[in-house]
Amino acid sequence: MTHISGARRGRRARIALLGPVCLLLLATGCKEEQAAAPVIRPVRTIIAEPKDQAHGLALTGEIRARHESDHSFRVSGLVVARLVDVSAIVKKGEPLARLDDRDQKNGVRSAEAAVTAAKAEVARARPQEVRQKTLLADGFTTQVQYDNALKNLRGAEAGLESAVASLKIAQDQLKYTTLHAEFDGVITATGAEAGQVVQIGQMVVRVADPGEREAVVSLAESQIRPISTDLHIDVTLLTNPSVKTTGKIREISPIADPITRTFTVKVSLNDPPPELRLGSTVSVSGRGKSSSVVTLPPSAVFERDKKPMVWVVNPADQTVGLRPIAILRNDTDRIVVSEGLAKGDVVVTAGVMKLNPGQKVKLQDAAAK
Q1: How many helices (H) and strands (E) in the chain?
Q2: Nearest-5° angle of CA 265, CA 266, CA 272?
Q3: CA torsion, points 69, 74, 76, 82, in degrees to nearest 10?
Q4: Any residues with CB less than 8 A from the CB of 296 and at least 6 apart, and which?
Q5: Is residue 192 part of a domain?
Q6: pTM of the full predicted structure?
Q7: What are the pLDDT digits (tens) for 9-41?
Q8: Which of 290, 320, 350 marks a domain boundary?
Q9: Last residue of some domain: 128, 155, 176?
Q10: In this predicted model, what pLDDT tens digit does every residue of 319-345 receive, in sequence order?
Q11: Mean pLDDT lowest for which of 82-91, 192-201, 250-259?
Q12: Which residues, in sequence order, are bridge partners of residue 90?
């Protein structure tokens, strides 16, 4: 009996020890279940409200010639005369500047002498070839002697051709010592004075064609994106608003200026009045077709896979999903979205980097934007 009572007491003791362990395991399991429960993250949102926005520009620009060329010499040398000054009107072919041409004249004389010598050599070799040909036909000379005479004639003729070509080059070099206008225009700048040694290609005068003028403006990066070539442009003289004309965007620079970081836009003018002279300051304004855009705070937009994205809340189950967008422009305090959002879309504006696709969220507010 004593043995049985001891065994019962041992079982009771083991049960008493196992009880707290079970309770501890149950508590741990509960905690794990609680940790595995999905996190519902509170977020701030706005409701997308597309608005029509017209794309346009309103800037100050300058009248320039569409065709403008830097005229330079094709040979190096000492400038002995510059025949025109800034604002001078020139005609095509009119001389603009001259170089010291003594070396070129000497080159022409040397080439002419070489041509004379080459002609004399041909005049000597041709009768010999004719004589050897006649003797060969009569059997009084050999084929070798005739071949030598023919070779001398061909060499003399080749020498004459080379001398004539050298003379033509020397004459062109002499002609290049006078700089001529390539087209009718006006002198807008000069780059060399008499007594200055200039190199090949160095600008001596700049000639602009005033017949075809255009307005040129510079746009910042935030302004260039909405601008398109279908804008109707009005160009007005800044000092006299009654002087005006219309135009069309001809060219939008694809790259920014390395110094100003602005983009150049050129506007062709329709029948510009004479008062719109080269260098005049003008007001350039235009307005094009409107498009539907949505504005978002910068905190709502992030980048994934090198594409701009936003989180959009699904109202059915209160989960978020990724939505790619197209950015029209990036202002200092807002981002203008042209594609990707529809009216009524609920867009997350805060905490976007802590969300995952399909995650449940709790809306804090939803303001229209």
Answers
A1: 4, 22
A2: 145
A3: -50
A4: 46, 310, 334, 335, 337, 347, 349, 369
A5: no
A6: 0.59
A7: 555 555 454 455 445 545 555 444 444 556 788
A8: 290
A9: 176
A10: 999 999 988 777 778 888 888 898 889
A11: 250-259
A12: 185
149 is in which domain, residue-wise? 101-176
- DSSP assignment of 147-207 equals HHHHHHHHHHHHHHHHHHHHHHHHHHHHHTTEEE-SSSEEEEEE---TT-EE-TT-EEEEE
215 and 144 housed in the same domain: no
Contact 327, 337 (CB under 8 A): yes
Q: How many domains does the chain have?
A: 3
Q: Per the domain annotation, does 189 fall within a domain?
A: no
CATH of residue 274's domain is 2.40.30.170
pLDDT computed for residue 256 by the predictor: 87
Q: Quick: pLDDT tens for 273-311.
A: 989 988 899 999 887 666 788 889 988 899 888 889 999
Question: In this predicted structure, which of 75-84, 105-114, 219-228, 331-340 has the lowest mean pLDDT?
Answer: 219-228
Q: Are residues 48 and 115 in the same domain?
A: no
